[in-house]
């Protein structure tokens, strides 16, 4: 601060009423060599400040595009993807200094209710929500979205190898037809393998005759978690928490508005642009994970 004061108050052609550098250094108790070292270092300091301002602008942009959901790890990954050589500690400091924060998700209350008369399928997942090959292990669930026109229901099917939403359906009810439609979409676009596991909770929709008939037609193996245990289907439930937190709407004006928001989130944002840390590929999107995994699993020519 003293060196900056000296620089502002020194005598120059534009400031003939200023004081000599030697006099101000003596009065302020600093050395002239220190002042001139400050002048020499100032261009580099100003350049670093300019670069930091640009980086903060990039961080704000990434944060806004993610619906203010990304925290330090994903913003760091996104910066590296566009060429910035930056570590997470620097990003953490800058986000803290500029009050840029990711979203903290709250736990979701379950929707599906078990059919006490229906026999459950065995749990073939055992809370192992990983898979090495796409089309071999799926998780499914249903959630509700409040609108001014009434409840709007969403059923999803997620491929655990890629975390891609490969199937989904929306309706003003959560009867068996909703989960059947979601699984049909997954079968049409998810390249499901023979014997693929289709995991869900024990809700009556998943123990219905319609759903189990489709499971058999597709050559899948049905799997179910225990009644009342959210952890047995945690991967599917986590996605709904993410969707609601990142969309941010608490109640939609209409079912059409809810449908449009969900479609955009799944097809445009989540599957194609949202970064997730993969144990092998680092921070990649679900679509990129599918492409990379398929490439690695392809037989050599």
From TrEMBL:
Pfam families reported in the protein's UniProt record: HTH_21, rve, rve_2
Superkingdom of origin organism: Bacteria
Domain Integrase catalytic: 130-294
SUPFAM superfamilies listed in its UniProt record: Ribonuclease H-like
InterPro entries, alphabetized: HTH-like_dom, Integrase_cat-core, RNaseH-like_sf, RNaseH_sf, Transpos_IS3, Transposase_IS3/IS150/IS904
Family annotation (Gene3D superfamilies): Ribonuclease H-like superfamily/Ribonuclease H (3.30.420.10)
Annotated NCBIfam families: transpos_IS3
PANTHER family, per database record: TRANSPOSASE INSF FOR INSERTION SEQUENCE IS3B-RELATED (PTHR46889), TRANSPOSASE INSO FOR INSERTION SEQUENCE ELEMENT IS911B-RELATED (PTHR46889:SF4)
Function: Involved in the transposition of the insertion sequence.
Protein's name in the database: IS3 family transposase
């Amino acid at each position: 601060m003293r060196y900056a004061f000296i620089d502002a108050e020194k005598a120059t052609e534009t400031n003939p009423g200023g004081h000599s550098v030697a006099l101000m250094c003596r009065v302020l108790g600093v050395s002239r060599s220190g002042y001139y070292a400050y002048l020499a270092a100032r261009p580099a300091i100003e350049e670093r400040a300019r670069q930091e301002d640009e980086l903060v602008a990039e961080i704000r942009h990434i944060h806004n595009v993610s619906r203010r959901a990304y925290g330090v790890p994903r913003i760091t990954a996104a910066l590296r993807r566009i060429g910035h050589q930056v570590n997470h500690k620097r990003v953490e400091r800058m986000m803290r200094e500029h009050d840029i924060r990711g979203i903290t998700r709250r736990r979701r209350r379950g929707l599906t209710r078990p059919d006490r008369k229906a026999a459950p399928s065995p749990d073939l997942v055992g809370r192992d929500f990983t898979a090495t090959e796409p089309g071999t292990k799926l998780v499914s669930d249903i959630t509700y979205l409040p609108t001014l026109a009434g409840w709007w229901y969403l059923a999803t099917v997620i491929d655990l190898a890629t975390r891609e939403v490969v199937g989904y359906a929306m309706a003003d009810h959560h009867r068996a037809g909703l989960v059947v439609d979601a699984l049909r979409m997954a079968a049409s676009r998810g390249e499901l393998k023979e014997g693929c596991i289709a995991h869900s909770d024990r809700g009556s929709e998943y123990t219905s005759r319609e759903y189990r008939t489709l499971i058999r037609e597709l050559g899948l193996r049905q799997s179910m978690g225990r009644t009342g245990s959210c952890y047995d289907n945690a991967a599917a439930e986590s996605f709904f928490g993410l969707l609601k937190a990142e969309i941010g709407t608490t109640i939609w004006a209409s079912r059409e508005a809810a449908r449009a928001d969900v479609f955009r989130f799944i097809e445009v944002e989540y599957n194609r642009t949202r970064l997730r840390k993969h144990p092998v590929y680092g921070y990649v999107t679900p679509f990129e994970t599918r492409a990379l995994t398929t490439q690695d699993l392809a037989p050599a020519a």
